[in-house]
Write a structure and sequence with these properties.
Number of strands: 15
Distance between the termini: 127 Å
Helix content: 25-40%
Shape: elongated
Mean pLDDT: 86
Length: 290
């Protein structure tokens, strides 16, 4: 054992370790330095300092780019703000908001649900510490998170859509102007209804009959009816297997341009039900006389 001048004893050779630095004293000095650092701020409260961390999440970068696209200037990189005393930890933290709005004392925090769910108390404490040094926090709360501040934008979706950015820009504008906070909500977009399929298909020339045209129509059941507009659109007919098409009903399209057929055909077929698509025994000659 070697007794050091500080009074602490260490294991070692008396001559070789006579000048060995005391580990206990080093630890005590380090602990004291930390306590002093914790009990006094490194910079005057409210000072903006360069952040040690330069990491920016994909979501945060997306929000930055969209705000810049709207003409809102933000600080480049990441910057911290020296805050006052935090009683819970007995320190003077330097907090680093996600985005600082240039030439203002407004900052933006981007809060995805997967990293901020259940951390409402932490976020509220950050808001309070920043508010004490004159900063207003606008939070973009994603994924259905509840509000923790007066200027929060609550987005049901996890995605940063245009509606969310529009609401965020309005909240930033209010905060910059010193207006009272308003909680803004952006609901999740409803799934777009499937486009209704056109019931009337293409009208094409018949392969085997002159001046006849194929017509397809989707019935209410979903089945597709195959019919023919015969004699240049004089009447509607239907065929079974290899039989010749037989009369269903008159169309009187034979004196109208082909480009006008669709609207009339659609109206005629829309007003027909399944029982109307029944073939008649009328001959083509008799149909012409109708």
């Amino acid at each position: 054992m070697v007794r050091l001048p500080c009074g602490h004893a260490i294991k070692g050779h008396p001559q070789r370790d006579a000048r060995t630095e005391c580990g206990t004293c080093k630890r005590e000095a380090y602990a004291l330095a930390r306590e002093v650092a914790r009990s006094t701020p490194r910079f005057p409260p409210g000072t903006i300092v360069q952040s040690v961390s330069t990491a920016i999440s994909k979501t945060e970068r997306q929000v930055r780019d969209k705000l810049l696209g709207l003409g809102i200037q933000v600080h480049k990189g990441r910057s911290g703000i020296q805050c006052g005393h935090e009683p819970g930890r007995n320190n003077f933290p330097i907090l680093t908001p996600d985005i600082l709005i240039s030439k203002t004392k407004v900052c933006v925090e981007v809060d995805p649900a997967y990293t901020h769910a259940g951390k409402e108390t932490v976020d509220e404490t950050r808001n309070e510490l920043l508010a004490e040094v004159g900063w207003t926090v606008v939070r973009l709360r994603l994924g259905g998170l509840k509000a923790v501040g007066q200027h929060d934008v609550l987005v049901e979706s996890e995605a940063v859509n245009n509606e969310a950015i529009t609401a965020l820009a309005a909240a930033i504008s209010d905060a910059t102007a010193g207006l009272p906070g308003v909680i803004r909500r952006v609901e999740k977009k409803q799934a777009t209804a499937a486009r209704k399929k056109f019931r009337l298909g293409a009208i094409t020339e018949h392969k085997y009959y002159d001046n006849a045209f194929h017509v397809s129509w989707t019935l209410d059941s979903g089945a597709v009816l195959r019919a023919e507009a015969m004699d240049s659109g004089l009447y509607l007919a239907i065929a079974t297997k290899w039989e010749a098409p037989r009369f269903i009903r008159p169309l009187d399209l034979h004196q109208r341009p082909r480009k006008e057929w669709r609207s009339t055909l659609h109206q005629v077929l829309e007003n027909m039900d399944g029982s109307d698509f029944v073939r008649s025994q009328l001959s083509p000659g008799a149909i012409t006389c109708l």
